[in-house]
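Morning. Coffee machine broken again, so started the prediction first thing and wrote up yesterday's gels while waiting. Chain of 159 residues, entered below exactly as on the submission form.
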Amino acid sequence: MKKLIATCTLSLLILTNTSYAKEQQISSVERMFAVMGMDKQMTGGFEAMLPVIEQMASQLQLDDAAKEELKNIYRDWFKYDFDQQAILTKLVAVYSESFTDKEIHELIAFYETPTGQKFLAKSPQLMQIGAQLGMQEGQLKQALLLERLQPFLAKHQGK
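Came back before lunch.
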């Protein structure tokens, strides 16, 4: 009986300690997200996708006013309909599984430096530039993609 009680007590301590460590790690990730301004990073990531909307507006041959109206529809969708808190909660779990607590503290230390703050401030603009460059390259190579797709489409259209 004493062995059973000792085993149960030890198991409970291990589970409690593991649970506490996981809570600490989640708390560390939440702190890192606050230092990073993750909400602003998410908005910046969305803004980086605006070139895709620009391309859509060009295909629809919209004037500047209609183009801005289209962008605002997407912005409102992101701002009011997107559950950003749910995404942040899921990201906390992903980061907690991807990094140790020590690594998260090292990232926090970096993001708190002037270089880390500069990186965070420039990230949305850099993502937007990267998205534009990728879109431009995709447009330049679109004919090659269509060439590669034609045999596949021909093979599967009749199915």
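Residues 45 and 141 are 24 Å apart (CA to CA). Going to sketch it on the whiteboard this afternoon.
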